[in-house]
Amino acid sequence: MVRAFLLILAALGAVPAAAAAEGDFLVIAHRGASGERPEHTLAAYERAIDQGADYIEPDLVATKDMRLVVRHETEIGETTDVGAREEFADRKRSKTIEGRLVTGWFAEDFTLAELRSLRVKERLPGLRPANARFDGLYQIPTFEEIVTLVRAKEAETGRAIGIYPELKHPTWLLQEEGIDTVDLLATALRKADLDDADDRVFVQAFEIGPLQRLDALVESPLVLLIAPTGGPYDEPAMSWAEIMTPTGLAQVATYADGIGPYLGHVLAADGSPTALIADAHAAGLQVHPWTLRKENAFLPPALRRGTAEGAPGDLAALAGMVVAAGADGVFTDDPALVLSALGR
């Protein structure tokens, strides 16, 4: 299997720059340049923009006072100093989120002012110790600040920069916490004049119902994210495997404009393309797989370099495979490396 993988790498050696030049392959900065700065900080987003990323990707949760803020999860103990803050010790609790018991501190139990008193820390310090040097420097940004940053950088660079927000657990937040992040995001997009089909915005979620609601509220392109296993939380009778069939993809195309599949759904174990991208394109859907990361821990064995989990492997080769497979873009923690691999 490894030998076959390496043969494919050799065959694709000259593909990335040529393939990328043929179309509008999008490099989407996953939580910003999160391979170089703590994720979901204005510093990570600005670094990604300065490196040339086409889009930046903020994950959105909500505060107690209904403000959209940028965090990977509603639980914030993993990515902030809240656990060391005595004044918030009594906020620690356990919640069952989409069937999984989570203990910690949750954004929806804090006002925006309280969250702004916290400071962000690196989520993966063992793999990314250099990022941990920035612990304590940054606040949790709001969605409005992301929009302001993008517009400031567009004015500075003269370059169009896209925003690719993801709604985290929208059905659970509505049912269990009474917070409608679909409505909050639609309102925020309209307020920012970013709700038209030709604006540089994609909205993504791992759930079907929220995307169907957004389809009626905004003209922004919508993307159904697809996890490695299981199915959408709000449609327990459905599986991702069913959704990825030609019939399932045709149904997705009635409310969305693209899919964001797990990388393993578009590349087989030997690095060759699966049928998913071709099937999605046949249904009229764009395909933006996730996530390219440079560290060995996230790469297939044939692309790892050395034995350290946090050491950089051959991310450029993996980027070449994604382009050669026909994807329309890719999420990455390391936009500079992917852009370089594409000859941009």
Brief write-up:
The chain is α/β, with parallel strands linked by helices. It is built from 15 helices and 13 strands.
If you had to describe this structure to a student in words, what would you say it looks like?
The protein has about 350 residues and is α/β, with parallel strands linked by helices. It has one domain (about 1-60, about 140-340): TIM Barrel (Alpha-Beta Barrel). About 35% of the residues lie in helices and about 15% in strands. The protein has 15 helices and 13 strands. It has a four-stranded parallel beta sheet with strand order 7-2-1-13, with helices on one face. A four-stranded parallel beta sheet has the order 9-10-11-12. The chain has a three-stranded mixed beta sheet with strand order 4-3-8. Helix 2 (about 15-20) packs across helix 14. It is globular. The chain starts with a helix and ends with a helix. Mean pLDDT is about 95; it is low at about 1-20.
CATH superfamily membership: Phosphatidylinositol (PI) phosphodiesterase
Name of the CATH first level: Alpha Beta
Low-confidence stretches: 1-22
Strands in their spatial order, largest beta sheet: 7-2-1-13
Structural class by secondary-structure content: alpha/beta
CATH architectural grouping: Alpha-Beta Barrel
Overall pLDDT metric: 94
Provide the helix percentage: 25-40%
Biggest β-sheet strands, sense, barrel? 4 strands, parallel
User: What's the number of helices?
Assistant: 15
Summed up, the domain count is 1
**Hey, roughly how much beta strand do the residues contain?**
5-15%
Shape: globular
Kindly report how far apart the N and C termini lie.
Answer: 31 Å
Radius of gyration: 20 Å
